[in-house]
Specification:
Length: about 325
């Protein structure tokens, strides 16, 4: 009987195949170290825009500007930089200690919401209020002084009051109130570090300085009204009225030009404290009243209740730029 033996060629092929199986097994061990993607992290992220919330924030900036300008006289602009989703833990790591934190409640929603002023912006506001320059200051991690705290509380109160005013216009039977002021961002972790937030990043300009403040809205707290915040329910004439209303509330710088004159560079450089510059205007002199760089009215200098004033006499026939 003929015996079945493997030829040398068949033995070589078998050994090669065993080597490949060993390499594949080793490769499989390396792949086992790869971490699986956690799809739960995307559970609450929605691609839909929160259109009504954007309207609320835009109206908020309109209401806030004149209120804050009464405190920060050289305030230039307030605007929303972005509206995004983020993990609460990731956001907290970006916020220095201490920070100006207003703890909010939005009736009838449950849970806490937060309004946070970056300390670099707060220190700049304090500097301006006390007569200093609007520049960035180093964050030292120390607690706020009594003076800084008083200014912080005043600014936060104006922010919350104007936010409440704008919120009530767009979300019926709801309102925002300030319940506490904190300075430690770590206190914002109330439930889970993985909690998702809706983050409105706001930018405030004081002359050449730009600083940020944030509106932090935990997603789970917004669930009862998320559809309301996504839906504008505005169209046709309503949309036109909304645009006109926002336009009418836009701040405009109005200037009364006393005089214009020409000087050489040498004369300007030689000016020193105590020098006088003559202005060829007197009481009852006519001057131009300018808005947005465009002369719109002609007025007369005078006084009202012991204060300097300008009486509007006539409307100038001036076309806007670009016409």
């Amino acid at each position: 009987m003929e015996q079945d033996f493997l030829s040398q060629e068949e033995v070589d092929l078998l050994l090669k195949s065993l080597g490949k199986e060993q390499e594949e097994a080793e490769g499989g061990e390396e792949q086992s170290n790869v971490k699986p993607f956690n799809f739960d992290e995307l559970e609450k992220i929605s691609p839909l825009r929160y259109a009504r919330l954007e309207q609320i924030i835009n109206k908020w900036t309109v209401y806030l500007f004149p209120e804050l300008k009464s405190v920060v006289i050289n305030l230039e602009n307030i605007s929303m930089e972005s509206l995004s989703h983020e993990k609460l833990s990731d956001f907290i790591l970006k916020i220095p200690l201490p920070s100006a934190i207003a703890v909010l409640e939005i009736e009838p929603l449950e849970g806490k919401f937060y309004l946070i002023i970056d300390p670099r912006l707060l220190y700049t506001i304090v500097s301006v209020v006390l007569g200093g320059p609007p520049k960035s200051y180093r964050i030292e991690g120390k607690s706020f002084t009594k003076v800084e705290y008083r200014i912080m509380k005043r600014v936060l109160s104006k922010m919350v009051d104007t936010l409440d005013r704008a919120w009530r216009e767009f979300v019926p039977d709801s309102g925002i109130k300030l319940v506490d002021i904190d300075d430690n961002p770590r206190h914002l972790i109330t439930v889970s570090k993985q909690e998702m937030i809706l983050l409105a990043t706001m930018e405030l300009e004081i002359e050449t300085f730009k600083g940020k403040f944030f509106l932090v809205l935990p997603m789970k707290n917004l669930d009862p009204i998320k559809d309301t915040l996504r839906n504008t329910q505005v169209g046709g004439e309503d949309l036109r009225d909304l645009v006109v209303e926002n336009l009418m509330n836009t701040p405009v710088v109005v200037e009364a030009l006393l005089d214009r004159f020409t000087m050489t560079v040498k004369e300007v450089l030689e000016l020193k404290s105590g020098d006088l510059i003559s202005i060829d205007k007197y009481i009852n002199s006519k001057i131009s009243i300018v808005a947005g760089g465009i002369p719109l009215f002609e007025g007369i200098l005078g006084t009202s209740k012991d204060k300097k004033a300008v009486k509007v006499e006539s409307l100038l026939d001036t076309k806007a730029k670009g016409e």
